[in-house]
TrEMBL record:
Signal peptide: none
Highest taxon in the source lineage: Bacteria
InterPro entries (alphabetical): YdbS-like_PH
Keyword Heme: no
Transmembrane segments: 25-45, 51-68
Protein name (database record): PH domain-containing protein
Length: 161
């Protein structure tokens, strides 16, 4: 390990799919779009000072268009011999290390929007509720491959205990 806790040596990181950016921005547009339109209608029908509200919503939308791609680029995972590493975050970084022998089960999830964008999520569950790790934005084939690989590695490590 290096002095930096979020960049261990001997690790090859696998990034998540860039399609996750589109999915997250679509969710933001579904929330902010109607709000923006409603505030524009209210501002058009009332005093000129009310235009500040739609401007704030537009600024939030622009900020999300800048932030979400950066967040997705910061998300990655790495498979090592004895554990799985999951990292995320730009300002507030997070690195989760899940030993294969501690995994109880692995979920693969894909809602309607995720399926539309061709992505899925893999969620790892351990005995401790606080030690779950989730990898969003994987292509479905990679999610299935990772689920099977993690389940078999977890069984092998558990059998060795």
């Amino acid at each position: 390990m290096t002095a930096e806790p979020f960049t261990p040596t001997d690790v090859t990181w696998t990034p998540v799919s860039r399609r996750l950016v589109g999915a997250r921005l679509t969710v933001a547009a579904c929330v902010l779009g109607p709000l923006f339109v409603g505030l524009v209608v209210v501002a058009a029908l009332t005093a000129p000072g009310v235009w500040a509200a739609p401007a704030v919503v537009a600024l939030v939308a622009a900020w999300l268009c800048w932030l979400v791609p950066r967040q997705v680029r910061a998300m990655a995972y790495a498979e090592r011999a004895d554990d799985l590493l999951v990292r995320r975050g730009i300002m507030f970084r997070r690195l989760v290390v899940v030993p294969y022998g501690r995994m109880q089960y692995v979920d693969v999830n894909a809602g309607p929007l995720a399926r539309r964008f061709g992505i899925a999520s893999v969620q790892l569950h351990t005995a401790s509720p606080a030690t779950t790790a989730e990898i969003d934005g994987l292509p479905p084939e990679e999610a299935a491959r990772l689920r099977d690989r993690l389940a078999s590695r977890g069984e092998a490590r558990l059998a060795g205990l």
